[in-house]
Known about the structure:
Layout lengths: L8 E9 L6 H9 L2 E8 L6 H8 L2 E4 L5 H9 L6 E6 L2 E3 L1 H13 L5 E3 L2 E5 L2 E3 L10 E5 L20 E2 L4 E6 L2 H21 L6 H18 L6 H32 L2
Parallel strand pairs: 1-2, 1-4, 2-3, 6-10, 7-11
Antiparallel strand pairs: 4-9, 5-11, 6-9, 7-8
Amino acid sequence: MVAPGGARAPVTVVIAARNEAAHISDCVRSVAGWAAEVLVVENDSTDDTVALARAAGAHAFSHPFETIGRQRNAAIARAAHDWVLVLDADERCTPELAREVAALVGAGPPHEAFRVPRRNWFLGREIRHGGWASDRPVRLFRSTLRYDERPVHEHVVVAGAVGTLAASLLHYPYASLAQYFEKLLRYSRDWAQQHHARGRRAGALAVVARPPARFVSMYLLRGGFLDGAHGAVLAVLAAVSVAAKYARLWEISRGEGRGTR
């Protein structure tokens, strides 16, 4: 979408990517037609991520990886415009969202940051229950703001009120179970290390009790069963993810105790 006269919305789109050849072209194309600038910050890609991003209309550059928040901040620091829209490579901007962002920025937004609803897919099916439908991360904000740089659960640091847009992003995080488990291994490790560094510890009770509690919450209390087999599998995997996080935290806590003997 380009405004009459060929003008693009004064927005910089930031996309962090590593080995995202399967996604990056479609992601960049979903914003390159209407946003004035698209920046892709990549690290250690061994596929065609950089070439494909540039061919689709983005400026791509490399930055050493420490955390996803730091990657995004490196790109935000280069933004040529006052407003930034952050995407992941496995996300797509809809025409409705493009129009809403362009109109909002052009009219003078009432807030410094806005949440953007996400419609999430799992193994080819949109998940509408189990908590996934309430996913609204802060993704549109002034380029003076920054992410915190924690390993997991990074967020934009905002002092004032945060608005919420009406239009959605499309999110395709898992095309296969292999992708899910690959991410689970990294995420559970980083989560445990982060929480241990903050003084949190875990015993066997947490490893036993928290996974079934997550399943019940997601599948029964939040209506995951309404998504059919996909909802059941996803709730089981969420419980496995919780078990992995607390088992890793228990392992670190146990090692700490043995090391002090």
